[in-house]
Amino acid sequence: MSTSTREIHLVRRPVGRPTTDDFRTVEVELPDPAPGQVLVRNTVLSVDPYMRGRMNDTESYVAPYALDAPLEGGAVGEVLASGVDHLSPGDVVTHMAGWREHALVDAAEARKVDTSLAPASAYLSVLGMPGLTAYVGLTRIGGLQEGEVVHVSGAAGAVGSLVGQMARLLGASRVVGSAGSPEKVRWLTEELGFDAAFDYRDGSLVRQLGTALDGRRIDVYFDNVGGDQLEAAIEHMADFGRVAACGAIATYDATEMPPGPRNLVRLVQRRLRLQGFIVSDHREAAGEFYRTVGGWLADGSLVARETTFDGLDRCVEAFLALGTGGNTGKMLVRL
């Protein structure tokens, strides 16, 4: 029997900031799973800033989204029918066929998860790609050592909020973050344990960051934003500091590429290392990540906040809200 369902397609390449007209909800019929496939009813969908880049037809580390085809993204769902022995109806799995209510997924691309240990949504946030990104950026790219100073931009987002907490748990002596509102700044300092945070919209970035550092310099800068925030961080880096470049959300909607930081001479003067990274290149870290972060989550040392929209009809709205700072923590869509 076929399954009637809905999925969201990209129907044109956005120019600048995306709009609702760039997307369309389409009704489709899915066949029963073939051997090697499972049919999944999605229950939680992830929308993420990196998806904006995939909407452009440009060279990147992953292929662009096809037009007039369903978008892709992280999802958690329940297996309804299975064409393999190791997955059964009722199992909960994560996969990348998001932006739709049901999905036919190759079983090799579905990972069974235990929702008795953590809620399904955690496998899209703290125990999923954002959590692993934060952990890899600090430990593999930033090489954080006990006693060092960490700064993270986009600190109230899905990745940034975990970076700050993990930095503290890994022994950082001071953790500083930037965010986009006074409410987010208070959340970082009063609930997540950041030593200091500032609203990047509220005056000079160099001045505010210097005040937050309280006479110290940055050993590890975890960059989610790029642009002016990267320039300000470089100005305050310590000798032999490291920049883990995870994202550049400040430039994602730009129609012309903005100029880079004006102070790159500091890379030479202070012998800095700036390295971009993609979390999928570090799958070898997954076992260590699950053991370490799973323990922190279990004992309450690490907390994860979610911003949730309900229903497939609000998936585009949730995605667009990422570009205007509409999320605190991980942005999710519940079906």
Alpha carbon gap, first and last residue: 22 Å
* Radius of gyration computed on alpha carbons: 20 Å
Give the rounded overall mean pLDDT: 97
**Major sheet description:** 7 strands, mixed
What order do the helices and strands follow?
Answer: EEEHEEEEEHEHEHEHEHEHEHEHE
Shape: globular
Number of helices: 9
Helix content: 10-25%
Classification by helices and strands: alpha/beta
Enumerate the spans where pLDDT stays under 50 for 5 or more consecutive residues: none
β-strand number: 16
Q: Report strand %.
A: 25-35%
How would you describe this structure to a colleague?
The chain is an alpha/beta fold and 335 residues long. It is built from nine helices and 16 strands. It has helices spanning 51-54, 129-141, 160-169, 182-190, 205-213, 227-235, 265-269, 286-299, 315-322; strands at residues 3-10, 23-30, 37-46, 69-70, 75-82, 92-95, 102-106, 111-112, 149-152, 174-179, 196-199, 218-223, 237-245, 273-276, 306-310, 330-334. Strands 3, 5, 6, 7, 8, 15 and 16 form a seven-stranded mixed sheet that branches. A six-stranded parallel sheet has the order 11-10-9-12-13-14, with helices on both faces. Strands 2-1-4 form a three-stranded antiparallel sheet, with no helix packed on it. Helix 6 (227-235) links the parallel strand 12 (218-223) and strand 13. The two termini are 22 Å apart.
